[in-house]
Amino acid sequence: TELSLIRNFSIIAHIDHGKSTLADRLIQVTGGMTERELKEQVLDNMDIERERGITIKAQTVRLDYTASDGKTYELNLMDTPGHVDFAYEVSRSLAACEGALLVVDAAQGVEAQTLANVYQSIEHDHEIVPVINKIDLPAAEPEKVKAEIEEVIGLDASDAVMTSAKSGIGIEEVLEAIVQRIPPPQGDRDKPLKAMLVDSWYDPYLGVVILVRVMDGVMKKGQQIKFMQGGTVHLVDRVGCMRPKIEQLPELGPGEIGFITAQIKEVEQAKVGDTITLAKGGATEALPGYKEVQSVVFCGLFPVDAADFEKLRESIGKLRLNDASFTFEMENSAALGFGFRCGFLGLLHLEIIQERLTREYDLDLITTAPSVVYRLTMTDGSTQELHNPADMPDPVKIDTMEEPWIKATIYTPDEHLGSILKLCQDRRGIQLDLTYVGGRAQVVYELPLNEVVFDFYDRLKSISRGYASFDYEQIGLREGDLVMMNILVNNEPVDALSMVVHRSQADPRGRALCERLKDLIPRHMFKIPIQAAIGAKVIARETISAMRKDVTAKCYGGDISRKKKLLEKQKEGKKRMREYGNVSIPQEAFIAALRMG
Ligand code: GTP
């Protein structure tokens, strides 16, 4: 296709503002989908995504649109993941486009996530077309939202397009705005091939599918291509686009977005942001912006039933086929047996994987306390990364410890501001900025990531009754006064509950954990001390008093069958327990103990 007839764009929106609904409408109007297919929202194609309303994997759809000028345009709609954990993927998708639709809910207005994505889009020099959606709602205030877009983002919203994606109002106008306002891509057909690897995923029929944006040159079946960062060479065996159904094409020219397959076995080989060129006579310089993805949050995943270990291994392997950004290695815990230490891009990513394992693969799992990656500088001058609190070296050998910090932007209705500031303050936050925009406050805080991985989101949501939105970026490591806190049950350390905490937080955390465990662990025949300790120093202590008598004593009177039943019941209960220094800890205790304020 001629460059002047191509438009590449993405849709920026806060969760629930109507991105998928609008995308589906655009596909429907341009003829890519029937009404019935529309019902099964195509862009969000994983169950969990749909249920949680989150788009995880970017997908692209090609639309043919005959505009009012009589010409037929090729529109490539790039769907971007909607969550901060996937910020790098978003940045690569945006780098493949020249413009974006900024969808804002006419009743909700601008929210934190919208802001972060808009700023990224502006950084990529995108032409941004504001779209005010849900104008059918009685609570819609499009004029107010327009003013907010101008005030908060600094974008001219005077010719924002008014839509109701749900009822199909304003869809033609959106298409015309894309054609008239978003610039066509640039590129040179005669230069050596240079394409960006925007995304990759595993398809059971096609193998690894790669989404590309061709910058220069032409991509064709039969070419020997090279991944410049990955260093591998592959044979292209399919070239095509999605409408949203897969359609094979003879080629992808400069400025075009589409997919290729190249007999690649693992998504790991197809790194997002890599530059694809020809194996022979290719480009010499890679595209800018490539980054190696790194896990930010780690936790252990263990099967509740040790017999499920193989099943867990297989399931993790399957998930990993599609998601090279999550890492795992085998781990052996004294308490929990064999499991895996897994690394994630962020908390939400962790939750998604955990939920898929539980739901799609029907696994009962114990998740240990999530931990961030600390950098240790040892007294001998060497440095090391700590991914698992259980691997903490002897503290006397540690000179300094550094922890990752983030810059968080929270956007909230005024009335919840006080409690949110307190929450951030309690989590060692440093306030950078506080501004008011139309009855809402925007607060910017620097926070240590380890204070956020516990239950920050949950707290924020409950404090604000769901109205506050949260967004963050990493800002690097800072030295902290960090200590390792162990929990001892009947004088045995419970490795799954060990955590690295800031010294100032150790006392309240330790006390809270002990109190929780006291309620969660059932009484035994003997007294059970529960302690929180830093090194040899106990900082909190609770005691579970001993049970007076054998449970079966109650049934004296000789009813043997009743006694037997009771014993069986106890045995049944045991299965879901973990033995620790002769103490049985119910599985729920691990999870519940970690969900604390
Ligand atoms: P994510 O995929 O989670 O990012 O959300 P999204 O932005 O794609 O939102 P989605 O399209 O799933 O829409 C969220 C909800 O808003 C759904 O219940 C839609 O039916 C509804 N919705 C979307 N557009 C409109 C609209 O124009 N009017 C009304 N009343 N509801 C709409």
Automatic annotation (TrEMBL):
<dbReference type="GO" id="GO:0045727">
    <property type="term" value="P:positive regulation of translation"/>
</dbReference>
<dbReference type="GO" id="GO:0003746">
    <property type="term" value="F:translation elongation factor activity"/>
</dbReference>
<dbReference type="InterPro" id="IPR005225">
    <property type="entry name" value="Small_GTP-bd"/>
</dbReference>
<dbReference type="GO" id="GO:0003924">
    <property type="term" value="F:GTPase activity"/>
</dbReference>
<feature type="domain" description="Tr-type G">
    <location>
        <begin position="4"/>
        <end position="186"/>
    </location>
</feature>
<keyword id="KW-0472">Membrane</keyword>
<dbReference type="InterPro" id="IPR013842">
    <property type="entry name" value="LepA_CTD"/>
</dbReference>
<protein>
    <recommendedName>
        <fullName>Elongation factor 4</fullName>
        <ecNumber>3.6.5.n1</ecNumber>
    </recommendedName>
</protein>
<dbReference type="GO" id="GO:0005886">
    <property type="term" value="C:plasma membrane"/>
</dbReference>
<dbReference type="InterPro" id="IPR000795">
    <property type="entry name" value="T_Tr_GTP-bd_dom"/>
</dbReference>
<dbReference type="InterPro" id="IPR027417">
    <property type="entry name" value="P-loop_NTPase"/>
</dbReference>
<feature type="binding site">
    <location>
        <begin position="16"/>
        <end position="21"/>
    </location>
    <ligand>
        <name>GTP</name>
    </ligand>
</feature>
<keyword id="KW-0251">Elongation factor</keyword>
<dbReference type="Pfam" id="PF06421">
    <property type="entry name" value="LepA_C"/>
</dbReference>
<comment type="similarity">
    <text>Belongs to the TRAFAC class translation factor GTPase superfamily. Classic translation factor GTPase family. LepA subfamily.</text>
</comment>
<keyword id="KW-0342">GTP-binding</keyword>
<comment type="function">
    <text>Required for accurate and efficient protein synthesis under certain stress conditions. May act as a fidelity factor of the translation reaction, by catalyzing a one-codon backward translocation of tRNAs on improperly translocated ribosomes. Back-translocation proceeds from a post-translocation (POST) complex to a pre-translocation (PRE) complex, thus giving elongation factor G a second chance to translocate the tRNAs correctly. Binds to ribosomes in a GTP-dependent manner.</text>
</comment>
<dbReference type="Pfam" id="PF00679">
    <property type="entry name" value="EFG_C"/>
</dbReference>
<dbReference type="InterPro" id="IPR035647">
    <property type="entry name" value="EFG_III/V"/>
</dbReference>
<keyword id="KW-0648">Protein biosynthesis</keyword>
<dbReference type="GO" id="GO:0097216">
    <property type="term" value="F:guanosine tetraphosphate binding"/>
</dbReference>
<dbReference type="InterPro" id="IPR038363">
    <property type="entry name" value="LepA_C_sf"/>
</dbReference>
<feature type="binding site">
    <location>
        <begin position="133"/>
        <end position="136"/>
    </location>
    <ligand>
        <name>GTP</name>
    </ligand>
</feature>
<keyword id="KW-0547">Nucleotide-binding</keyword>
<keyword id="KW-0378">Hydrolase</keyword>
<dbReference type="InterPro" id="IPR000640">
    <property type="entry name" value="EFG_V-like"/>
</dbReference>
<dbReference type="InterPro" id="IPR035654">
    <property type="entry name" value="LepA_IV"/>
</dbReference>
<comment type="similarity">
    <text>Belongs to the GTP-binding elongation factor family. LepA subfamily.</text>
</comment>
<dbReference type="InterPro" id="IPR006297">
    <property type="entry name" value="EF-4"/>
</dbReference>
<dbReference type="InterPro" id="IPR031157">
    <property type="entry name" value="G_TR_CS"/>
</dbReference>
<dbReference type="GO" id="GO:0005525">
    <property type="term" value="F:GTP binding"/>
</dbReference>
<dbReference type="Pfam" id="PF00009">
    <property type="entry name" value="GTP_EFTU"/>
</dbReference>
<dbReference type="Pfam" id="PF03144">
    <property type="entry name" value="GTP_EFTU_D2"/>
</dbReference>
<dbReference type="InterPro" id="IPR004161">
    <property type="entry name" value="EFTu-like_2"/>
</dbReference>
<dbReference type="GO" id="GO:0043022">
    <property type="term" value="F:ribosome binding"/>
</dbReference>
<keyword id="KW-1003">Cell membrane</keyword>
